[in-house]
Amino acid sequence: MSPEFAGSQYVIEIIYLIASALFILSLKWMSSPATARHGILAGEIGMVLAIGGTLLRHGIVDWKWIIIALVIGSGIGIPLGMVQMTAVPQRTALSHAFGALCVTLVGTAEFYLRTPDVPKFMMSVLSMEVILGGLTFTGSLIAAGKLQEVLPQRPITYKGQNIVNLALLAVAIGLAVYLVIHPEAKQVFPVIVGIALVFGVFLVIPIGGADMPTVISLLNSYAGLSAAAMGFVLDSKLLIIAGALDGSSGFILSVIMCKAMNRSFTNVLFGAFGQVQASAAAGQEARSVRSATPEEAAAILAAANKVVIVPGYGMAVAQAQHKVRELYDLLTKKGVDVRFAIHPVAGRMPGHMNVLLAEADIPYDRLMEMDEINGEFPQTDVALVIGANDVTNPAARTDQSSPIFGMPILDVDKAHTVMVIKRSMNPGFAGIDNPLYYLDNTLMLFGDAKQFVGAIVKELGGH
Amino acid sequence: MNSNLIDALFVFMLAAFIGFEVIRHVSPLLHTPLMSLTNALDAIAVVGAIVLVGERKSTFATVLGVIAIIAATSNVVGGFFITDRMLRMFKSSRPAKK
């Protein structure tokens, strides 16, 4: 290596250092909507610097394929960046899959380039990289398929599922250990990758749609960890930092989601979730509910001082957010204080509802977190639940036999009047009956969320 | 070599702690854009793929590397793009509306 190249090596490392700092700043600025867009800029500059710096490396002799791949990748990325906001969960799952695919492929290529003289530690991280990458790749594809409803959203379960899954994982890890001890046993490597890919599928098929926020966060974390492992293999501090940031971000989000569903982390890690739901559909008796027409609902809303709207996945499915905005505008004009109560697991990924409501132009300072708003329900005239179910189920507070007992919920039942827009009395996705619907202060508004809110808007003098 | 690995472990540990501290302060309001942003940042793995392709060590490595670059670049471009679109939607009611 000539001294000139050694010099450029330092320049590149400094560029990576700056990029790492920008990545950290980028996430730091995400803490508030006011600074978040600076965060993107910082991230973009960091990314351009890092890629540019890499292209300067003297070892790079072949540009053609790099350029072609960058162009194709950008071409795929643009439509992926333009998807509708309701499709963001599946897009996110898909991009976890792409990230993991990149890591797995690079790991595989590195293995075949370096074997058989791979030091033990290096082989351990390399195995970890492809195991995590492989399972994240297929797991995220399955998650994306479920979210896009190409695959059934219902959990696919069978007897002994956890044992099969754990056995698979154990075999993969066992083979990885063998490979660390016998690095010349090349043929073991593809088996490890194969098992990781199969394991990813098995890990996600038993998971139902309502648990997707946790799964997506967890896959996010795995994608980050696999990238960090790749950083160890390539001795790239930049990659280690970016991977660690992504890994911890996904981890924190999964913990938040777990807490919001009152599930333990081990419960989630072993894929046992989604299974509680199978048991609970039975045991409904014909209790009486009160229902109301759009005219009645409009009159009650117009007479209220304080209204809290509780959106859920049903709002997203019905694409009702823009009608909800019209309702918000009309009521606000009439002097009604309207706010939105967002449960952490409402929707199909963390923060899903906030994005949909922001898309509909509802100011973000009207969107309240569960802890902020729960104390205010007793002073709320009307709680309007749109397409949310389990997150409002008072059984979670009172009924020890309920599968969701202990899950923190939005205390809508404490509002003076509760109105629930729902298609029918069929229990929701999770199959758990909701005693909220039978309360004396509850009015059921039967119909499609978008049409019903539209009818209320019309009554209130909108169009 | 060994000291390099130890250095790398230290870097990982510190970055993980920074990650925890920084992410803990992200408002739940922004959890979706946070995830798409970290996704874009994570696609920095493209750097490894670029080196792999650029050094042209074997056809096999080049083929895998090209696919890896495509996958990661689509995350970079798509991830930043959609995060920006989302964040542009978040508006406060306090400053006078245009």
Number of strands of chain B: 0
User: Per DSSP, what share of the residues of chain A sits in E-state strands of 2 or more residues?
Assistant: 5-15%
Please state the structural category of chain B. Answer: mainly alpha
What's the β-strand tally of chain A?
Answer: 6
The main sheet of chain A comes to:
6 strands, parallel
Oligomeric state of the chains in view? heterodimer
Largest interface comes to:
A-B, 112 and 83 residues
Q: Going across the major beta sheet of chain A, what is the strand order?
A: 3-2-1-4-5-6
Overall mean pLDDT of chain B stands at: 89
Give me the secondary-structure category of chain A. alpha/beta
- Distance between the ends of chain A: 73 Å
Largest sheet of chain B: none
What's the SSE pattern of chain B? HHHH
**Domains of chain A, number:** 3
How would you describe the shape of chain B?
flat
Distance between the termini of chain B: 59 Å
Protein architecture, described:
The complex is a heterodimer of chains A (463) and B (98). By secondary structure, chain A is of the alpha/beta class. Chain A has helices spanning 3-28, 36-55, 64-81, 88-114, 120-147, 161-181, 188-204, 212-234, 237-261, 265-269, 294-303, 313-317, 321-333, 352-359, 370-373, 395-398, 449-459; strands spanning 306-311, 337-342, 367-369, 382-386, 417-422, 442-446. Chain A is built from 17 helices and six strands. Chain A has a six-stranded parallel sheet. In chain A, helix 1 (3-28) runs antiparallel to helix 2. Chain B has helices spanning 2-24, 31-42, 46-54, 59-89. Chain B has four helices and no strands. Chain B has 98 residues and is mainly alpha-helical. The radius of gyration of chain B is 19 Å and the shape is flat. Chain B has a domain at 28-89. At the A-B interface, helix 1, helix 2, helix 3, helix 4 and helix 8 of A face helix 1, helix 2, helix 3 and helix 4 of B.
